[in-house]
Amino acid sequence: MITRRTLLRGASGVAALSSCAGLTPLLQAWQTGGARPDPRLIVRSRTPQDLETPVSLLTDWITPNDLFFVRSHLPTATVAPAGWTLTIKGSVERPLTLRLEDLRALPQTTMAVTLECAGNGRAFFEPPVAGVQWQKGAVGNARWTGVRLAEVLKRAGVRTTGQFVLLDGADRSVGNVPDFLRTLPMAKAAHPDTLLAFEMNGAPLPVSHGFPLRAIVPGWEGAYWVKWLTTVDVLDAQHDGFFVQTAYRYPTQPVVPGAVVPANEMEPLSGLTVKSLIVTPGDGGALPAGRLRVAGFAWTGDGEIARVDVSRDGGASWQRTSLGRERERYAWRSFEYQWRGIPAGAYTVMARATDSRGRTQTESPQWNPSGYLWNAPDRVSVAVGIPAAPTGTTAAAKLELPADDADTALVRQKCLGCHDADLIAQQRLNDAGWSREIDKMTRWGASLADDERRRLLGYLVRHFAPR
Ligand SMILES: Nc1nc2c(c(=O)[nH]1)N[C@H]1C(S)=C(S)[C@@H](COP(=O)(O)O)O[C@H]1N2
Ligand SMILES: [Mo]
């Protein structure tokens, strides 16, 4: 029988072998835990599993579990509930080991909270940046049920020296790829709204969303919401792992687009920014003459949505929308506006949210090396009373490696032991950008002779340079 461990060993070993054919289907069957993702989701990457929700499906205030975007850095962990426990350790008086039923016996809380990946909208940055090329749908809103992390920490008795809470999930890395470990500063960990959730919209957490337990960190970007939780480790000092020290960092000062920013000029991300999403009309749609109804959602990382304005003339004039009845502190708010009797024509519809802290959406969000926190006013094109015009958005290219290139075999051999080709083919980087990615992958276990590195870089720049 193939256990997860032997399969993982096989997976990491394969990067060094001459062929990985045959591994990929096996890796996929295992990583999805047998459950097929909803075919309506946009596949950004099969392994690790990165699925985006098409905007047209984000019609409801609550995003259904099947349609909720998925972002995972490593192969999905499939956890058997019987053997699973949560360990609370580190700078605590009483280390604890809790089973799911122990957690369920604690006082429970349910909250609707919007979850957004910090990289949502990364695809819109110019010049392009490395990473999963999310457009608009790495966001959703769900009702999460669980217990307060503060309650669990109180039972363990945090020592006065405890500064950070390290969260570790059951997902394990392939090769030398760093493990996904994240820390919360103590104030956020001990905040009464930070939860350990076992239910999503009234059902047990789906495997892709962290079964059996994940963190809910209201207002903060998705990477803090660790899935498949197994360990809560109270630390006296900040952790030194890649996903704490290097990833999820943002320049302390505005930088020139395309710049390489030194590590000491970056700081950790935490709160989300203010943002809106137009769901209706759909981009490139056509409507009968007369009316134009605009509706969607707006959210912010801190405070609440104060107003959402919409424009149908590309931002020259704005109308204030009415906000929806459903209103919870950390959940997105729906907005709606309707024009009547407008002339037939082509319109550029925009939405711009403002929060209670006075923050609003600006035309060019600050470029940053990892493409986080994109929040330009949302914009769609719509034809009213005339045939739909081509939107200029080209159909998504097929995310495959070109078959007619002599170096494709090398790329397969060196790269596809840890991830699928789609992860490469969606990115558009220049020579320096691809070079940095190759360096990272070399640190993470890809072994490349000088000449192989040269060929790999040439190949990536040849096929996947900025358009
Ligand atoms: N264990 C683990 N937790 C994780 C991740 C991961 O790769 N591993 N990805 C994080 C990121 S970057 C995001 S945006 C959210 C996405 O949650 P979802 O897949 O339920 O939408 O999960 C977070 N939790
Ligand atoms: Mo994320």
Descriptive report:
- There is one protein chain.
- The chain is of the alpha+beta class and about 475 residues long.
- It has three domains: about 10-270, Alpha-Beta Complex (Sulfite Oxidase, Chain A, domain 2), CATH 3.90.420.10; about 275-385, Immunoglobulin-like; about 405-465, Cytochrome Bc1 Complex, Chain D, domain 2.
- About 15% of the residues lie in helices and about 25% in strands.
- The longest helix has 14 residues, at about 450-465.
- The model is unreliable at about 1-35 (pLDDT under 50).
- Molybdenum atom binds next to loops.
Question: What is this structure, in a nutshell?
Answer:
The chain has 467 residues and is of the alpha+beta class. It is built from 10 helices and 24 strands. The protein has helices spanning 4-14, 23-31, 100-104, 149-156, 186-189, 242-245, 408-415, 421-425, 431-443, 450-463; strands at residues 42-45, 50-52, 70-71, 86-90, 96-98, 109-116, 139-148, 164-169, 181-185, 195-200, 203-204, 214-216, 229-235, 249-251, 266-268, 275-280, 285-287, 290-299, 305-311, 319-320, 322-323, 333-342, 345-355, 378-384.
